[in-house]
Write a structure and sequence with these properties.
By secondary structure, the protein is of the alpha+beta class. The protein is built from 7 helices and 12 strands.
């Protein structure tokens, strides 16, 4: 896999020509900026920008005004290969707050293992209803140490609208959810995104994260997708690299409130 080529493909198909990620949201193009806009529980933010040094500050100010008029917090999802090179510094100067950076990792599905190997006593259970979403959220709370009410509402919205672009699964140890993950499909792009996968502390190091990656890789392959993409933390990045993912860029979320 040529890293530069696949990164350019990702930028073009997933960012520059982004499709709405959730029910009830819209994608808007404002000059050299592509943004997603929805309600308070939706993900709102900038997914792509093609800025230069001369126009960057004005474009940033325009997005701040736009989301402020809507009364929405939003995220500018910046990547280390975006231009201008000091985009992050300009966002901070405009009142944004930087969240921890993550590695953008991409793999060809055909290069990944798809055999699901789980510890004894652990099974995978698809999430198809509200009870399953509750289990998924419980697993996330154990793994990440916090509640995620907005994510819960986004997932429930997908179930209410019967969309088939999100696939979710929970790893169960008996009646206890110990890990949960989802895959967001981007039809017509060849890319599927992996999200979640965090595991309860007392179950880490037993291959559950790897099994969830393999499970989703198999599903994506069966659906004809070519690539998997992950925004990886420092904890998951080494595992993904061993599985065959390449670190092609770094992404940093910059957040700004509506005020």
């Amino acid at each position: 896999m040529d890293h530069d080529d696949v990164l350019a493909l990702f930028d073009d198909r997933i960012r520059r020509n982004a499709a709405p990620g959730d029910p009830g949201v819209r994608v808007e193009r404002d000059g050299a900026v592509v943004r997603q806009v929805g309600g308070e529980d939706s993900w709102n933010g900038v997914v792509w920008s093609g800025l230069d040094e001369a126009g960057a500050d004005a474009a940033i100010a325009a997005q701040v005004r736009h989301f402020a008029a809507l009364g929405l917090e939003f995220e500018w999802k910046a990547y280390s290969h975006d231009r201008p090179a000091d985009l992050g510094e300009r966002l901070l100067a405009a009142g944004f707050t930087a969240e921890p950076a993550e590695a953008l990792m991409i793999a060809r599905i055909e290069d990944l293992p798809t055999d699901v190997v789980l510890p004894e006593g652990v099974r995978l259970q698809p999430v198809t209803d509200e009870a399953g979403v509750d289990l998924l959220m419980e697993a996330h709370e154990q793994a990440f140490g916090r509640e995620l009410p907005r994510l819960r509402e986004r997932i429930l919205d997908h179930l209410r609208h019967g969309t088939d672009t999100v696939s979710m699964v929970v790893a169960m140890a008996g009646d206890r959810p110990i890990s949960g993950a989802r895959m967001e499909l981007n039809p017509g792009t060849g890319f599927a995104g992996l999200w979640g996968g965090g595991t309860a502390p007392d179950w880490r190091g037993r291959g559950i994260y790897r099994a969830l990656v393999a499970h989703r890789a198999r599903l994506a392959a069966d659906l004809g997708y070519q690539y998997l993409q992950v925004d990886a933390s420092d904890q998951s990045r080494p595992i993904l690299q061993r599985l065959g993912f390449a670190w092609v860029s770094t992404t940093t979320p910059y957040l700004r409130g509506p005020a």
